[in-house]
Structure formats: C-alpha cells, structure tokens
Amino acid sequence: MPFDTVAIVGVGLIGGSIGLALKERRLVRTVVGIGRSAASLRLAKRRGAIDRGTTQVARGVADADLIVICTPVDSIPDRIVEASASCTSQAILTDTGSTKAQIVYGVERHLRDRRTFVGSHPLAGSEKSGVAASRADLFDGRVCVVTETERTARRPLAIVTQFWRSLGSRVLRMEPEAHDEALAYTSHLPHLVAAALSILLPEEYKEVVATGFRDTTRIAASDPDLWSAIFLDNAEPMLQALGGYERVLGEFRQALKARDGQRIKRLWSRSYAKRRHLDRTGENGEGD
Amino acid sequence: MPFDTVAIVGVGLIGGSIGLALKERRLVRTVVGIGRSAASLRLAKRRGAIDRGTTQVARGVADADLIVICTPVDSIPDRIVEASASCTSQAILTDTGSTKAQIVYGVERHLRDRRTFVGSHPLAGSEKSGVAASRADLFDGRVCVVTETERTARRPLAIVTQFWRSLGSRVLRMEPEAHDEALAYTSHLPHLVAAALSILLPEEYKEVVATGFRDTTRIAASDPDLWSAIFLDNAEPMLQALGGYERVLGEFRQALKARDGQRIKRLWSRSYAKRRHLDRTGENGEGD
Predict the structure, then answer these.
(1) What share of chain A is helix, strand, coil (3-state, %, to 5)?
(2) What is the DSSP letter of B187?
(3) Residues of A in contact with B229 (CB under 8 A)
(4) Rounded to whole angstroms, what are the CA distances from A71 to A277, B15, B242?
C-alpha cells in the first residue's frame, strides 16, 4: 500500500470522499479523521470513510504519512501549522482549498519545515456538504490542481501528485496566482452570478420558474460560510472577472435598448459556440 | 377522444413532444405536422410524433379541431394569421411561444376571428432543439401559462386549458404582460446571465472548468435564432430585470472591494435561503 496512515482534517464532503476513495481503492491501511464534532466523526466511521476519529489534531496526525486538510479555506493555514507541529518529520501535508495564493504563501511564511507542504485543489464538489454527501468516486476523472512555487520541494510535490492520481484525478500543476485567476472565472464568478440571480428572484414569480433557472442557480444553494470565505480570499481576481462580466452584460444591455436583433444574435452565437465547444472538450469528465 | 385532428405547425422539440404526448395518451385520432423541411417531417413521422406531414400550412390545418403553433416567437403571429385563413370556423388556435404580449396582442389585432385564439407557454424545454430531442413526457408535471385578455373568449380558453391539462401540465392563467415580466426574471435573464458567462470564459481556462460552471451555463448553448428573437420580443421587461440584477452584482462588488466578510456572508445567506426554498417548493416537478 502506498500509505500506511492518512489523516484527514475536516471530514465533510471532500474529506469524507477522500477517505471513501482511499479505502475502496485499498491505498491505505488506516484513515484517521479529525473533526470538531464527535457525531459527524461517528457518521464518517459508519460510512466507512475513516477507521478512527478524534477531535484533537495533535493526536490525529501523530502517526500519519500524509495529512490532508479539508476544512473551509479561512481555517486551512492554521490547521496546517497546527498539524505540522505534531506530525513526524517525514509526513507530507496538503490541503483541498478552493483558493491557493492566500493559503500556500501563508503556509510558506509560517511553516516550521516548508519542505513538507504542497497545496492542492480537487475540482470536484457539489452544492451539498457534509460527510453524508461524500462519494468514493468524487475525484475520479476530475482535474486536481497541485501548486508549485519557487519554494516547493520535490518529494512532497511527487507524493501529492501521485496521491491525487491514485484517486483517479488528472493533475495539473499551476502557480497559486494562476490558479486563483483561472478559478475566479471558472468557479467563483459563476457562484456569484448564480447567487445574484437567486437573490433577485421576486417571491411572486416562483411559480413560473423553469428548468433553466434551476440549473443556472443550483450552486446558489452552496454553503454561505464556505463561500463567503472563498470570495474574501480571492477578492481581487474576482473583482477583475466581475468587471469583465459587467462589460459583457453591458453589451447585451446596449443591444436590447437599441432593439438590435443582429447584435443580440451575434452575442448569442458567441455564447452558443463557446458552450458547445466546452461540451465537446469535456475531458474533465464532469456532468453528473 | 377529445380531438379528432390536431395540427402542429413547427415540429421541433416542443411540437414533436406535443405530438408524441397526444399519441401516447390517445387524445387524438390524427396529428398533422406542418414544417418547412420534408426531411424533418419524415423524421417526426418515424418517431411517431405525427401521422402525416406537409410543408403547406393551408393544407395541414384544413381539417384540424386544434392548431398549435410551435415556431420561433418572431414567426408565430404570421403563422397564426395564415393558419386561421385556412381552418374551419370551429377550429381553435394556440401557440407555445416563450413571450406573450407581442404575440397575443399582435394576433388580436390581425386575426379574422379573435374568438378562436388563446396564447400558451409551456414551461418546458431544453437547450437541445429539433424533433430528435422530443419526448412524450416533456409537459408532464410542468406548468403551462395560458393567457387571458379582455378579448379572450370562453370556449377557446376552456379548450386550450383542457388540452394542456390532458398532457399532464398544471395550467396558470395570466395576462400577457404579467407573463412577460415574470419570465424576464425566471427564464430570459437567466439565459442572458448564462450566455454572458459563456462569452467571458477565457480560452486558456477551459481546463479548470468545474461542474458549477457547466450547470450555470448549460442554457448558454441554447439556439441563437430562437433566443435572440425571444430577447427582442421581451426587451423592455428584460431591461428592467437586468437593471435589478446589475444592482445585486454591485452589492457583491462593493462587499468584495471593502473585503467585508460579513456583508459577503449576508448576501450568500440570502442566496442560500431563497434557492433552498425553491427546492422545497418544487411542485413544478422539474429537474431532470
């Protein structure tokens, strides 16, 4: 087995799915779950996502070869520093946060031994949360970004890359800033756009909501704590993306005001071509 | 059987699904399909959506009790006037357009006998189009808006209402303007929002597109001709909705600029509560 003991800090949708995948693929002898709630650790154990659970980070990480921090982005740096103070010198640490620059550079500034940490972001998830929603195949066929900075050491980079590959993911290596700029467009702005639509919907129109509205706003039901932390972490790239978005909305507004059918159609043709192209290049394996 | 002959003008996704549903539920003896392309009429016949097809409106509607116009919104008024010139005086006409004021008032101004027409809009559809995508259960459990104006006559209103109910839909009666204002928020603005996201996506970020982006932009792959006609028809209500939407985006922008985590979280909490509520009140039966 590639790992003897893997410690998962934060056993929710992502942490629980990592545990399930590790056990199902027989990649580890023992999965230790570290969480704040004994009840959710018991649920994780019943689901087979962890072998044992503890609410104490220091105890949970003591024997681990690999420590995966799956908490909300605003608590990841603290949990990494905390875990690194109690683990062996051979242990490797990674995280699963949806933002990378704040986490990776924050950790590089504060970690006792920088050579043990590499950042990750598996592009998998759901508007659902909690270990009850976890699935052994959550990472299978998905992309996982693994970060590389000038301070990243070879051994943890290789081990963390192999870890995600062993769960079925395709690993892309990116610098933290490049990750955050890209994700602002591909994930964080779409969440903002969906949330704004959900907020705007007048109560009295709910009866005439159609499938298109439901799809477009599905992620508007994402966890407010998780997502406000992500927005705060990645505010600057998101403001850039939002500025570009408002310009495209402005193009539609001008065309509508002018009742210019040709301009509206040109905008629709661009949308259609780009979205169809995305379907054809769906090597990311998504769409459940 | 409630109908002897139903004529469907425009045998695409919606028209084809009406034909399939009528036949499967044994509500009609004969379905006549009227289309511009002999090839797609042959396909509709092979799929069992129509019994016979013709490219001539006058011939197709001659024997019909009910005529359903399922063409793009910008050609519906002309097709209704054309059909009404060739049908019997007992025939009832309706349409399936996604906008209602332009169509209904346009028809009321030009129709030989106004007492024969009532507007409809089944809230069902897909980003797919064409008879190949049609399904017998497309309207089952969905809402269908049937319009009522001061000129609407009782008999066609009752027949068209019963028609949609017999396909499994829940009928809501609305004035055309009220329909268009509501649909601007629940369907047309979501399409604009999704199209703008699709247009904005930088080519180089395609590799890190996640499920959220795909869901949020699914309707960005809708047919450009159909949707530019809908936008043009409903420009004024859409501009109103877009103005409100841009104000909500502005609230997010201000909160992001100020790095105000509490404000961001309050916005997310509103989005979450409203979107969850929509799921719990999913009596519209959607979500395939």
Answers:
(1) 55, 15, 30
(2) I
(3) 261
(4) 34, 50, 36
Question: A56 exposed, middle or buried (CB, 10 Å; 0-12, 13-18, 19+)?
Answer: exposed
In this prediction the ipTM stands at 0.92
- Give me the residue label for tokens 């946060």: A97
Beta strands in A113-196 (DSSP E): 120-122, 143-147, 170-174
Encoding tokens for residue B53? Answer: 């097809």
**Residues of B whose CB is below 8 A from A225:** 265
Q: Strand, coil or helix: what is B158? A: helix
Cα torsion A43, A44, A49, A52: sign: negative
C-alpha B103/C-alpha B121 separation (Å) is 11
**In this model, does residue B114 exceed pLDDT 80?**
no
Which two three-digit tokens encode residue A225? Answer: 């704590």
Q: With an 8 Å Cβ cutoff, is B143 touching chain A?
A: yes
Residue A246 near residue B177, CB atoms below 8 Å: no
Taking the C-alpha atoms of residue A56 and residue A12, their distance in angstroms, rounded to an integer, is 16
Measured between beta carbons, the chain A residues lying within 8 angstroms of B284 are 207, 209-210
Q: Which of B217, B265, B237 is nearest to A193 (CA)?
A: B217
Say if CB B214 and CB A287 are below 8 A apart: yes
Count H helices and E strands in chain B, helices first: 12, 8
Please state, as a whole number, how many other Cβ atoms lie within 10 Å of the Cβ of residue A86: 17
Decide: B70 and B44 in contact? Cβ < 8 Å: no
Report the distance separating Cα A21 and Cα A28, nearest Å: 10
Q: Would you say the pTM of this structure is higher than 0.90?
A: yes
Beta bridge partners of A69: A9, A95
Q: Interior CA angle at B191 toward B190 and B195, to 5°? A: 115
Q: How many whole angstroms separate alpha carbon B107 and alpha carbon B281?
A: 35
Compute CA distances A159 → A187, A227, B265, whole Å: 27, 29, 36
| Interface with chain B: mutation pick from A102, A145, A213, A245, highest number of B CBs within 10 Å | A213
3-state secondary structure of A55: coil
How many other C-beta atoms lie within 10 A of the C-beta of residue B158? 12
Q: Which residues of A touch B189 (CB under 8 A)?
A: 197, 200
SS3 A170: strand
pLDDT tens track for B214-226 = 999 999 999 999 9
| Helical pair A261-280 and A235-257, crossing angle rounded to 10 deg | 140
Chain A residue closest to B207 (CA)?
A284
Nearest-5° Cα angle at A134, A188 to A29: 120
The model's pLDDT over B59-103, given as tens digits with 9 standing for 90+, comes to: 999 999 999 999 999 999 999 999 999 999 999 999 999 999 999
Distance from CA of A7 to the nearest CA of B (A): 26
Alpha helical stretches, state H, A3-75: 13-24, 38-46, 57-61
Q: Which of A99-108, A184-193, A273-282, B15-24 comes out lowest in average pLDDT?
A: A273-282
**In Å, how far is A245's CA from the nearest CA of chain B?**
6
* DSSP label of B186: I
